[in-house]
Amino acid sequence: MARNRSSRMGCPNCGATAHIRTSRALSNKSRELYFQCTDPDCEAVFKGVLEVVSIVGDSKLPVEARMGDLLRPADRRKAPDENQTDMFAQPAPSG
After folding, report:
1. What is the pTM of this model?
2. Beta strand 30-37 with 17-27: parallel, antiparallel or unpaired?
3. Nearest Cα to Cα of residue 55 among 38, 79, 77
4. Which of 20, 76, 77, 86 has the least C-beta neighbours within 10 A?
5. What is the separation, in whole angstroms, between the first and last Cα of the chain?
6. Edge-to-edge strands of the sheet including 8-10?
């Protein structure tokens, strides 16, 4: 089975190719990846994080079927809740 070229990167120690050996979900938008260097003289093991930072192409899924609106474009986000307390609001002076 051929390896996916996107599942490797350069080793930070020697520059040789490092492959992803395993990963674990941190959230539905990020994963922690564990890499191993393929150079037998190095064999470093290191980890990195893969994270979705923005949506650049809209999904064909209906809005109701999507996993959340955290990364949707701002024009699709819900209107602000008028009852939500503003954490930066200054309390009214007493007296």
Report:
1. 0.57
2. antiparallel
3. 77
4. 86
5. 76
6. 8-10, 17-27, 30-37, 45-51
For residue 51, what are the β-bridge partners?
Answer: 30
CB 34 within 8 A of CB 17: no
Residue 83 located in a structural domain: no
Rounded CA-CA distance 63/82 in Å is 23
pLDDT tens digits along 14-59: 999 999 999 999 998 899 999 999 999 999 999 999 998 888 888 8
Half-sphere exposure of residue 82: CA atoms within 13 angstroms, side-chain side: 0
Instruction: Give the domain range for residue 36.
Output: 1-53
Domain membership flag for residue 25: yes
- 56: tokens are 């650049």
Number of domains within the chain: 1
